[in-house]
Amino acid sequence: MAEAAAPARRRIDVHHHFFSPGWKQAEREWAERTGAHQVPVNRDWTIERSLEDMEKGGVTQAVLSLASIPDNWFGGDPARAAWLAHECNEYALQLTRDHPGKFGLYCSLPMIDVEASLKEIEYGADVMKCDGFGLCSSYGDKWPGDPMFRPVFEELNRRRAVVYFHPTTPGRCRGLVPGVGGDAVLEVPFDTSRAVASLIVSGTMHRLRDIRWVFPHSGGSLPSLVGRMHAFMDGRRDAAEFAPEGIEALLRKLYFDTANGAWAGAMAGLLTLVPFSQIMFGSDFPYFTAAMTAEGLKRLGYSDRRMAAIDSATALRLLPKFRRMR
């Protein structure tokens, strides 16, 4: 695929988190109930801090999205998950109105309530005019290829939606390796691969060809597992049903961002899978800054044309609303 032409100086952060008042309250209650640690940067986030980080990192616009959501929307109650997803979406929508030209957004879906998710897709697409839809890599003991979620993905496919996944830590995988600095070090990048594998073996990726799939963190552990997935999955008797053209053919259609992945090894692995025209700038703010990602990419010494693809050209092609922003 040809490299994207260099646009005017611009940087779009497609992995930029926000936290609504309802989300902060739900996390606080969940931490008190379970004894878990409430993350300080979640609690202390403000839109002013977002704007400050964007300016320091040379970011002109950002796509707002939720971070991973622990314990099935803080407890797994479908009705509360539906209410909270809508509250987060309304809050994000107001932020885009308060700061015109600065923010796009991924509409959050509760997922564990399928009917509510279908209603939120309609609201997100028709009312919010969102740039895509934000999901987690797993929900309790279910990954996105589970039959439960089939109606949701069929509707997203009908709307030719951009679907962005943020990895989380499945409950059964918490604390498996003590002392490594939390589950975000290992389980978050591994759950990206679980989500992708689930979408493949369920036939979801092959069947629903109009969804544009986006995964963060330079693919997490996925690039290093491509060979193993090919070796163990392409040879299965049923492979023709879920990947008739092979596993790699499906993986090469995916999009990725660079959030906490602007490292030489991570980017080298990712670039064996997809070209620069399928990679977008991501910061993972507030956990990491846009300046950290920008500096990491600068150290890799990519050409101006390739940096233009990462900074904005890919996002402008995938998220056309940003073409009207200045």
Describe this structure as you would to a colleague.
- This protein has 326 residues and is α/β, with parallel strands linked by helices.
- It has a single domain (12-320), classed as TIM Barrel.
- 48% of the residues lie in helices and 11% in strands.
- The protein contains 15 helices and eight strands.
- An eight-stranded parallel beta sheet has the order 1-2-3-4-5-6-7-8.
- β7, α13 (264-270) and β8 (279-280) form a beta-alpha-beta unit.
- α1 packs antiparallel against α5 (78-98) and α6 runs parallel beside α7.
- It is globular and about 55 Å long.
- Residues 1-8 have low confidence and may be disordered.
Strands in their spatial order, largest beta sheet: 1-2-3-4-5-6-7-8
Strand content: 5-15%
CATH homologous superfamily (4th level) name? Metal-dependent hydrolases
CATH fold naming: TIM Barrel
